Amino acid sequence: MSTRLLVTGAAGYVGRRVAQLAAGAGYAHMVRTHHRTIPEAQLAGTAYAVDLCDAAQVAACFDAVQPQVVIHAACSNRSEAAIVPSTENIARAAAAAGARLVHISSDTVHDGEHAPYAEDAATDPCNNYGRAKVAAEQAVRSLCPAAVVVRTSLVFGIDPLDHQTRWVVNDANSGKLVRLFTDEWRSPTWVDTLAYALLELGNLNYSGVLNVASPLALRRWDFGMLMFDLLRITPGPNVQRALLRDSGMERARDLTLDVSRAQALLRTPLLTPQQAVEQIRMRS
Ligand SMILES: NC(=O)c1ccc[n+]([C@@H]2O[C@H](COP(=O)([O-])OP(=O)(O)OC[C@H]3O[C@@H](n4cnc5c(N)ncnc54)[C@H](OP(=O)(O)O)[C@@H]3O)[C@@H](O)[C@H]2O)c1
Fold it and tell me: Into how many domains does the chain fold?
C-alpha cells in the first residue's frame, strides 16, 4: 500500500503506537508530527514539527506531506485548550486535500448516567475535557463530514506504561494514598487494539461516530487490580477502594460503550482488558 499517512501527536501515547504499527499495517509512507517533545529518532517515518493550533502551519504541513490518510491523535486532556483549534485546522485541511480523516474522541462526551452508549446516544459531558471533545467532534462533522470519529475509553499498555497506570503505580509505590473507585465504570482499551483499529479505519469508507473500546467494562478498582497483577505489584494498604459519588470529582460514573458496530465492521479484534493482558504476558 503506497498510501501517504500523516499521524499527528506521534510523541503522545496513542500517536506513538500508531506510528510504530503503521508499517506493519501496510502504510509504507508515514509522516508523524510532534510539537514540544523532541521526536524519537528510531521511530519509523519522517518527523515534522508543527503547532496544530496554527492554521498556516497546518496548511504548510499538508502542502508538504500531501497526506491521503490522517490519523489525528494529538491534543488530549493534557493539552485541553488545543483540542478544538487543532481539530478545526486538521479537519479543514483534510477536507481541502480530500484526505481520509480518522479523528480520536472519547467516552467522556457522555454523562455517565445512561450507559451503555451506542454511537447515536446523545452527548452530555460533565467536565471541560468532555465539552472540548464534543466541540471537536462537531468541528469534524461540519468541516470534514466523510471523517470517522472514533470514541474510545481509558487507553492502556505497558511498553511504555500509559499515563494513568504510571501515575497510580508511582503513587502506590511511594506510599501515597491511591483511591480506586468501585462505582466508576470504563471500557479500558489496549493501545495496540486502538492503534490497529485506527490504521484499519484509514482504509475504510465508514463516516461518522464509531465506538472502539473494550467490549467489557470494568470498575476502576478491578482495572487497577488487573494492572497491578500484570506488573507483579502487590498493592499496600495505601491503595484503597473508594466511591466516586463521595469524592466530589467532576467525573462520569459509567461510560460503558456499546462496541457492537465496530465488532461487525472491523477485522481488528476488540479485546477485553483480560484478553489484552494475556497477549501482553505472552509477549514478555
Ligand atoms: N489516553 C487515553 O486514555 C485516552 C482516552 C480516550 C481518548 N483519548 C484521546 O486520544 C487522543 C490521544 O491521546 P493521548 O493520551 O495519546 O495524548 P497524549 O499522550 O497527551 O499526546 C498528545 C500529543 O499532542 C501533542 N500536542 C499537544 N498540543 C499540540 C499542538 N498545539 N500542536 C501539535 N501537537 C500538539 C503533544 O505533542 P508534543 O509532546 O510533541 O508536544 C502530545 O504528545 C486524544 O484525542 C485523546 O483525547 C485518549
Answer: 1
